[in-house]
Amino acid sequence: MSEIVNLSPSLRSLNPKISPLVPPRQLSSSFYQQPRLKFLSFPGKSILATGRVRAIDARRQEVDDSPVSVELGPISSESHFDEVMEEAQRVDESVVIVWMAAWCRKCIYLRPKLEKLAAEFYPRLRFYHVDVNAVPYKLVSRAGVTKMPTIQLWRDNQKQAEVIGGHKAHFVVNEVREMIENDSIT
């Protein structure tokens, strides 16, 4: 399985021969500092970048190292959901959970936009996704999910807010952004 990192345009401009999606082992060690990169692997899934890429151009000026998008971490069971919530509570952080289904066209269309939004709030906020058809119904009902896609903000093992994404993607993304920013104020 190959690991994929989405590089920002400023990092791609350093070496135009590198495609936007690059397996990290193909980058030279002078291009990035490996200790700043961490990868989490999920069985049968892509690799999720959890660190930042730091690059310095030829003039020794630091380049914007923000990720362009951050892949939504999968939640595959009720116990995994509980682990995510416990970890978030332990580090006193909120978590965004995107409830979707593989058959849902709006979910499929919205996902890359939410991955870009996740990059805006990275690393202080983690985004996860749950395929409602792949987890027990008990978890779906516990979260109060009745429509897809549903985007929820959780803190202290409690649902704080939610957005039901049945309308245009840019409206949903703006509502999710507003939901997150309102949580940051409190």
UniProtKB/TrEMBL annotation:
<feature type="domain" description="Thioredoxin">
    <location>
        <begin position="61"/>
        <end position="185"/>
    </location>
</feature>
<dbReference type="InterPro" id="IPR036249">
    <property type="entry name" value="Thioredoxin-like_sf"/>
</dbReference>
<dbReference type="GO" id="GO:0009570">
    <property type="term" value="C:chloroplast stroma"/>
</dbReference>
<keyword id="KW-1015">Disulfide bond</keyword>
<keyword id="KW-0249">Electron transport</keyword>
<keyword id="KW-0963">Cytoplasm</keyword>
<comment type="function">
    <text>Participates in various redox reactions through the reversible oxidation of the active center dithiol to a disulfide. The H form is known to activate a number of cytosolic enzymes.</text>
</comment>
<dbReference type="Pfam" id="PF00085">
    <property type="entry name" value="Thioredoxin"/>
</dbReference>
<keyword id="KW-0813">Transport</keyword>
<dbReference type="InterPro" id="IPR044253">
    <property type="entry name" value="WCRKC1/2"/>
</dbReference>
<protein>
    <recommendedName>
        <fullName>Thioredoxin domain-containing protein</fullName>
    </recommendedName>
</protein>
<dbReference type="InterPro" id="IPR013766">
    <property type="entry name" value="Thioredoxin_domain"/>
</dbReference>
<keyword id="KW-0676">Redox-active center</keyword>
<comment type="similarity">
    <text>Belongs to the thioredoxin family. Plant H-type subfamily.</text>
</comment>
